[in-house]
Write a structure and sequence with these properties.
Number of helices of chain B: 10
Structural class of chain B: alpha/beta
Strand content of chain A: under 5%
Helix content of chain A: over 70%
Strand content of chain B: 25-35%
Strand order of the largest sheet of chain B: 5-6-7-3-8-9
Largest interface: A-B, 21 and 27 residues
Number of strands of chain A: 0
Distance between the termini of chain A: 17 Å
Oligomer: heterodimer
Number of strands of chain B: 13
Largest sheet of chain A: none
Helix content of chain B: 25-40%
Structural class of chain A: mainly alpha
Largest sheet of chain B: 6 strands, mixed
Order of helices and strands of chain B: EEEHEEHHHEHEHEEHEHEEHEH
Chain lengths: 245, 282
Amino acid sequence: MTTFIAYFKKEHMEFTRTYKFLILGFIALFFALSSPIVLYFTPKILATQFDGSFDFATLMQTSLKTSFFGYMDDVYQILFVIMLFFGLAIFNNERVKYKNVLPKMAGATDQGIYAGKIVYIAAIMLFITYIASFINYAYGYFIFPKDLTLSDSSIIILGYYLFFMFNIALLSLFSAIQMKKFFIIFITLIHYYAVPPVANLFKLKVSPYHLINHGVLNENYYYSLIITGILSIVIILLGYFIHKK
Amino acid sequence: MITIRNLTKKFQDKLVLNNLNLTIEPGDIYGFLGKNGAGKTTTLNIITNLIEKDSGEIVKPEGLKIGYLPESPQFYDYMTGYEYLYFLTALEKKDKEKVLQLLELVDLKTHMKKPIKFYSRGMQQRLGIAAALIHDPDLVLLDEPTSALDPQGRVAVMNLIQKLSQQGKTILFSTHILSDVERICTRVGILSEGVLIIEDKINAVMTDVLQYKILTEQHEILKEILEENKNFEVTHYEPPYLIVKPIGIFDVFKTLASFPVEIKELIHVKPSLEDIFVKVVK
């Protein structure tokens, strides 16, 4: 437990002092503030190009919901690519660059290090994405027709967040089994970008991929939330026990 | 304090340690010598449980605390020296006093608020030693603590090792800087291709290869006399000198004077540890 707490605090220090926190927060906020306004003006700008002869507003639905989903899609994709490299460094540097030698000699345990890191990433991402997404929601609320409630948006954020953490859990597991960096990047990217569309072909009612599908918040969505949460925890625990072994 | 018996380790097909036997006595400053790739770091990593051995035995007392400084210690360099040591104490029990004491010991107290990334190599090495001492170990293992340091940095680390020894710590340090070993070690082990080929007190190792150069016009006669005498071994003739090695400890001058040969010059050849190392490792 002492290793977990020490590493949780250490990760916080690393995220703030090496500007990781600032980078992630800036990107999330930048998109939160820019995407509604871009969406709002895009039909108007396009209309000026066609001398007002074509009504783009009928083609491009601009509502709070489309604005919000558009933001979630964009920001999570960018955050994921950044987090992939941050995460790789976070999980691999200890072992590959031998940064864990002195702490281990001072009593740190591999599983405590792993747990401290992944819980910190989970906490910081939860914090950043909820704050930025609510700002985006609030901003869109004043600009667009209101077709999304705050409670529904909270659940959608949770869905994206859980899918994100599901991928981070996989990344940490690949790192725990000491897979080569290149393969970790390759497999995780494939999983994040290519698997969801393929999985949709199978028309699964419940799956982690359901969460980023702009789906209706029905029973299947809630089951998908639970399943993804459980799967992420199982993968994280697997990584934990691999380190313990 | 620690006895290693028949330690063997292979990396893929390469045999790195081949039935290594080694003993570290309490109070030793043990110089662990060997060429690059001889297996020194592997031995230290096995003693500290950072890697697993293939076979063999490491006998150590129950609860023996070991501190370890790797060859290139890696830090979280955005932390200050103080924060790093405090972080290490927090892994067991937070202890600000201990951190300050260690910073004092390694002479980094004036730099304790500076981020580690701005430390010189010597300062990082001293911080690494402080980190190795964080849980008050009985045995301190230092892997090449002086390599890549400038002369001033080397002297500072050597002095620190001597200070630790005076505080009752047992120290093993691996190095290929033989003058450092000659200066401060009490015992020495030379590792070559995974086997410890010499292990003894430093004085004994030096005495073992002690040689004399004898200048005489009757070197053939002297050679015959010495070959019959069990106290000397004639190694070779290096004109105009006959090179001999005493076997055991005795009064060489008195013994030679007793022979019926006129000796014009007697030169005591004291080899450096480097000579010994080159000779045995070859």
